[in-house]
Amino acid sequence: MAMTPTEQTPQTAATIASATSELRRQTDDRWVEVADDVLRNVLLARRRSMPVRAESPSGTLYVGEPVIVAYLRHRIDERLPGAAVSRVILSVSRDSVLETVTIQMLAQYGHTLMELADHVREIAQAVLLELLGGGTFEVRIVALDVHFSDVTVGNPHLFDPGDE
Amino acid sequence: MCGVPTGSGRDWVSYVEAPSERTTGASDLALSRRAALGDRAAFAEIFRRHSSATFRYARHMLDGDSQEAQDVTQEAWAKVWCKLPDFRGESRLQTWLFRIVAREVFNARRRQRPVAVDDTLLEARAHWSDTEHEAAGRALWEALSLALSELPWRQRASWLLREFEGLSYYDIARVLDTSSTAVRGQLHRARQTLAIRMEQWR
Predict the structure, then answer these.
(1) Under 8 Å between Cβ of A104 and A156
(2) N or C: which end of chain B has fewer CB within 10 A?
């Protein structure tokens, strides 16, 4: 005989709440054991990448676009407390030569944008010379643009405009 | 395309830095922005915050199969790592993560057997069989787990996302690619069914 749906009694609601809490904890215990291995495997996955031509004393080699982006972000963020990189866009020619670099930045309110932009360019040029020119070969880039897309009240390394 | 690395090119960021205040103190959006730019420490922090919740979801949607849930969760997070550069903050990061995980879980389940998403194909059973009366002797959490496994796919997913993870109706709708109204209906039916099951257990 079919039972009709019932409204939850307070006792049933309390039972379900208690069971939910317990069930949640049971699943978490298993994850603690395997999480490190999973993260390690996840970070082996490779993002889509364009090769960018680099010159070294021993000859020509190619550096992946994600490597350049990661290194630019790391150096700029490390050295500029009042600004953070939000995006890096590289354009590369058919023969894998880097043509333009656009660095989109977030600035913390109160910092001088022109000064920050000069610092960003200086750091970016040093990074690109190191990565693509072996520290000795000239790296010719058509354009290195710095664009401040937004401002944060808080520290842009910790917060995003979307948080404020 | 997300794939296994071949080791070509110089890899300047081939390690995960130890967590610092710049990672543990950062918001999800700030971390996602940095991880999209290759900051592995930021990604590791995102993983630390949200991965157990996604595993919980996968495990209960895959009928308690922990190994399958682990494999699917790993596949999903590999896609998260690859797709982060495309995330523009149009939704909360948690919602975006669950959307990817939910899709992977659904595909994994579909590979095993057809999924009856339509509630009318899996009506909640009206009474307990003799075998099911044995469930009354189980622990409380096991009884709930069994009851959850009986729910149709969308009801189960909606309930897990709401009750385990606290997502709003709007966010659940985005995860499951449906409407808030539909989510409300799914949750109502799920709660009714679970109330019957747990009342019987009591």
Answers:
(1) no
(2) N
Please give the mean pLDDT across all residues of chain B: 83
Tell me what the mean pLDDT of segment B50-79 comes to.
95
CB B2 to CB A47 under 8 A?
Answer: yes
Residues facing residue A146 across a β-bridge: A103
**Strand partners of residue A108:** A152
**Closest Cα in chain B to A159:** B30
The distance from CA A159 to its chain's CA centroid, rounded to whole angstroms, is: 13
Q: What mean pLDDT comes out for the span A145-156?
A: 94
Within chain B, how many helices (H) and strands (E) appear?
Answer: 10, 0
Beta-bridge partners for A87: A104
- Band (pLDDT 50/70/90 cuts) for residue A39 is very high
CA dist B34 and A71 (Å) reads: 12
Chain B closest-CA separation from residue A48 CA (Å): 6
User: Does residue A9 have a pLDDT over 90?
Assistant: no
Q: Is B126 exposed, middle or buried (0-12, 13-18, 19+ CB in 10 A)?
A: exposed
CB B36 within 8 Å of CB B85: yes
Nearest-angstrom CA–CA distance, A113 and A28: 46
DSSP single-letter state for residue B163: I
Q: What is the mean pLDDT of residues B130-143?
A: 63
A136 band by pLDDT with thresholds 50, 70 and 90? low
Which residue from B9, B44, B145 is facing A64, i.e. has the nearest CB? B9
Single pTM value for the model: 0.85
Backbone angles phi, psi at B48, to 5 degrees: -60, -40
Put simply, the answer to whether B5 touches A44 (Cβ < 8 Å) is yes
* Residues of chain A numbered 95-124 and touching chain B (CB < 8 Å): none
Q: Which of A3, A30, A45 sits opposite B2 (nearest CB)?
A: A45
Cross-chain Cβ contact B26/A69 below 8 Å: no
Instruction: Give the mutation candidate from A1, A7, A16 for the B interface (greatest B CB count, under 10 A).
Output: A16
